[in-house]
Amino acid sequence: MNEDEPESLAARLTCRKAHASAFNPFFVFAPSQVTIEGDVVGWSSSPGYVRYFCPRCGSRVFAENAGADETREYEVSLGRFDEAGVFVPQYESWARHREPWLEPLWVPQSEASRQGD
C-alpha cells in the first residue's frame, strides 16, 4: 500500500446508501497501483463515478472516479483489506451529510468532495 495515497471517510448520501452505513472509509489509488483480477460489473451511481461489484456474490469491490486519465482514480473501501489498523483518515468529505451524533474527525473537513463538488 502506498502511504502517500489519501485515506478518507465519506458521508455523502449516495455512499451511505451504497454501503448501508453512516460513512464509507476508503483508500484512493491511481490506476497504475491497482491490479483487478476476475469479473466485475459496474453501476454508474453518478456522472463519472462507477461502483464495481462481484457478479457472483454481489460484494462491492471498488469504485472508479472516472475523470480524465490524469485524474482517474480507484477508491477501495477499508473493508476490502484483511489487516486492521492500517487506515488513518487524512480528510473527511461530505461532512455536511455526517450524522449529527457523530463527532467531526481531527482531520481536514470538506462539506462536499475533496475536489470541491
UniProtKB/TrEMBL annotation:
Pfam families: GFA (PF04828). Residues 14-95 form the CENP-V/GFA domain. Keywords: Lyase, Metal-binding, Zinc. GO terms for molecular function: carbon-sulfur lyase activity; metal ion binding. Belongs to the Gfa family. This is GFA family protein. It comes from Caulobacter zeae.
